[in-house]
């Protein structure tokens, strides 16, 4: 069985398990996990961070975390999926929410996820600097101090923390995504010019955390996270 097949099988098993959870169980776990994130010193000191916007079921909800960050004057960037003309596949850019009112006004897509409208994205601050959408390409380093500007658009292009969704996590801090490769691709682009990576935090329900001794099948371009906040109250870190 290939790594991709193993990943697909694991996704199916986890998603089947998640269907048994009630709304109240997800709400309770979401409150615990979001509180863990808020308690992290990396979150408390962060000025610029990205938080995924959650589906209404089958994953940790992030609405309280997004609201807390905005209320505490943090710059919050959320995923926007698009297909750049020069890219062979869809990518995500992380674009800024301007306010709580902006967040509350978002419409939901077919998955029930609050989503930025296509109209107006060019006026939103991009987490990699500047405004609007990127090209989806790596930032090519030409010579020391000189760059081909195909990704990072300005000196503001830094992130302190990225809160990432996942279908499953393991104690080695490996993450199994939904299969699109969006976050792995973004992080590779973000760090392609030598910019240090943000502090990466996974959020998951207890049912999405693999038992001790079980590992997520990985590939060379899969990124590990620095911490995982679990809905049963556990906070796992690379130092554990």
Automatic annotation (TrEMBL):
Which EC numbers characterise this protein's activity in its record? 6.3.3.2
Domain of life assignment: Eukaryota
Organism, scientific name: Extremus antarcticus
Give the UniProt keywords, A-Z: ATP-binding, Nucleotide-binding
* Lineage of source species: Eukaryota, Fungi, Dikarya, Ascomycota, Pezizomycotina
So what family is this one in? Belongs to the 5-formyltetrahydrofolate cyclo-ligase family.
Extract one GO BP annotation from the record.
Answer: tetrahydrofolate interconversion
Instruction: Specify whether ATP-binding is a keyword of the entry.
Output: yes
Q: Which reaction equations make up its catalytic activity?
A: (6S)-5-formyl-5,6,7,8-tetrahydrofolate + ATP = (6R)-5,10-methenyltetrahydrofolate + ADP + phosphate
Entries under SUPFAM superfamilies matching the protein: NagB/RpiA/CoA transferase-like (SSF100950)
Protein name listed in UniProt: 5-formyltetrahydrofolate cyclo-ligase
């Amino acid at each position: 069985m290939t790594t991709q097949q193993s990943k697909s099988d694991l996704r199916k098993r986890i998603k089947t398990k998640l269907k048994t959870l009630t709304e109240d169980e997800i709400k309770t776990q979401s409150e615990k996990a979001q509180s863990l994130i808020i308690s992290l010193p990396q979150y408390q000191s962060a000025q610029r961070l990205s938080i995924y916007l959650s589906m209404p079921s089958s994953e940790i909800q992030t609405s309280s975390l997004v609201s807390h960050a905005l209320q505490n004057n943090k710059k919050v960037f959320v995923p926007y999926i698009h297909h750049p003309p020069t890219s062979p596949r869809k990518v995500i850019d992380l674009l800024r929410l301007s306010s709580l009112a902006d967040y509350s006004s978002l419409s939901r897509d077919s998955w029930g996820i609050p989503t930025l409208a296509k109209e107006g994205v060019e006026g939103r601050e991009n987490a990699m600097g500047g405004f609007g959408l990127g090209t989806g390409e790596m930032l090519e380093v030409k010579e020391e101090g000189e760059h081909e500007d195909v990704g990072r658009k300005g000196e503001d292009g830094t992130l302190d923390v990225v809160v990432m969704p996942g279908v499953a996590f393991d104690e080695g801090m490996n993450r199994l995504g939904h299969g699109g490769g969006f976050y792995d691709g973004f992080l590779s682009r973000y760090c392609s010019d030598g910019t240090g990576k943000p502090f990466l935090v996974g959020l998951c329900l207890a049912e999405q955390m693999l038992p001790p001794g079980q590992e997520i099948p990985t590939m060379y371009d899969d990124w590990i996270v620095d911490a995982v906040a679990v809905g049963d109250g556990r906070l796992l870190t690379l130092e554990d």
